[in-house]
Each structure stands twice: as structure tokens, then as C-alpha cells.
Amino acid sequence: MTLVTVDFDGTLFKGNSFKVMFQAATKDFTWKDWSGVVGGLIKAVGLWFVKGKNAFRLAFFAAFAKGFKGKTKQELDRFFHQLVDIGRNEVHYGLIQKIKDHQKNGDTVIILSGALLPFLQAFTKEMGLDVAIISTELKFDQNGVCTGKIGPIVNGNEKVKRVESWLKQHGYSTDANVDNPEVWAYADSESDIPLFQFATHPIVVNPDEPMKKIAEENEWPIWA
Predict the structure, then answer these.
(1) Structural contact between residues 92 and 205, judged by C-beta atoms closer than 8 angstroms
(2) What stretches in the chain show pLDDT beneath 50?
(3) CB of 183 closer than 8 Å to CB of 163
(4) Which residues of 42-77 are buried (b: 16+ CB within 10 A; e: fewer)?
(5) Which of 8, 62, 98, 174, by CA, is between 20 and 30 Å from 42?
(6) Residues 6+ apart with CB under 8 A from 120
């Protein structure tokens, strides 16, 4: 069995999902929605300067999710389909085709990302991709209404933990001394290094200069 993991931000989606979320929110959010978000976003920007991009990402999602509080799954489906339309020109269509090629070979494909699950569900549906998704989840109450909270962000080492968990759930071992399934990893950033080190076939997609240097040092293939 071959397992193929594909990152979203910077990889399958070459643009900035934060940007398209803001664009959609400016049309869709009410002043009440924004009231719960603004303070957290200001804090997130501050963390970017002090602790870097990953700390910003964590704070951003936690803050932005507050704007979804009280919305139903149907309302959120409409919101996230807007994001797909806004970001359509930023889709890496070559990687979309590569995913389909993997599937033709019988490989199992998982979109593995810190992006919000409803966004990825809308995206894969629009792109005609029948794949599994492991990503950051929005929390809902028993009535299907969003609580404004999120689960663990699927980023860095968390991606490796999720892949290991998936393998175990499907009857495979992650013991280095056992003949394990091949794992491909398509991703773009330094936060994906733990996943690249775990994967049998790390593929660095659209890296920035620092990540390109790391890829070259590790002899990881680079794919534009």
C-alpha cells in the first residue's frame, strides 16, 4: 500500500488562505461576528513578529473561528464555497492531476493540512477530488451549531502523529524494523520538515529560498 499526503497552503493552494478568508469574511461577517475576532487577530499579528509564522497561524485560526460561533454547518458550507471561488486562480492544477495519477495507480491520498476542514471539504468537492482529509476541525454542539472553537491544528509534528494514527487504524505498523507502506509527502514549508523526515518519498513543492536550501541539503526532490 502507498499512502500519499498532500499539504494545502502553499502546496495544493499556492496562494494565502488567510487572505481569501478575509475577503470572504468582509462580505459575509456581521459586526457581531467581527467583535469576537478582532482582538485575537491583533494578538496573532503580534505573535508573528515575536514568535514567527507558526505561532501566528495558531493564534489566527483560534481568533477567526470565533466569527463562526452560532453558525450552522449549512451556513458554513456557503461561506467556505466562497473561498474556493475567490482562490480559484491560486490552485496548483498540476498537483491536482498528480493526485489523480496517484489514485489511478491505486494509491491512497490524504489532504493533510492545518487549514480548516470545511474549507478543504468545499475545495475537494469543487475540484472533483475523492480523497480523505485530515485537518483542523471546527467544533460543533449537539445541534450542529458551531461553538467558535477549534481542535488541534494539524501542523508540524502533529501531521506525523496523524499519519501514524491513520496507519495504525488501518492495520499497519509504524515500527522502523517492519516493512511499512510507502509514504509520499507533498508539502512546502519548514513546518513540514518532521513529515518530510518521516516520509519515504518527500517532495518539496514551491519552496521559498530557505526551504529550497534545506531541500537541497537533504537531497529532497523539488517540484514547482
Answers:
(1) yes
(2) 177
(3) yes
(4) eebeebeeeeeebebbbbbbbbbbbbbbebeeeebe
(5) 8
(6) 8, 111, 113, 133, 135
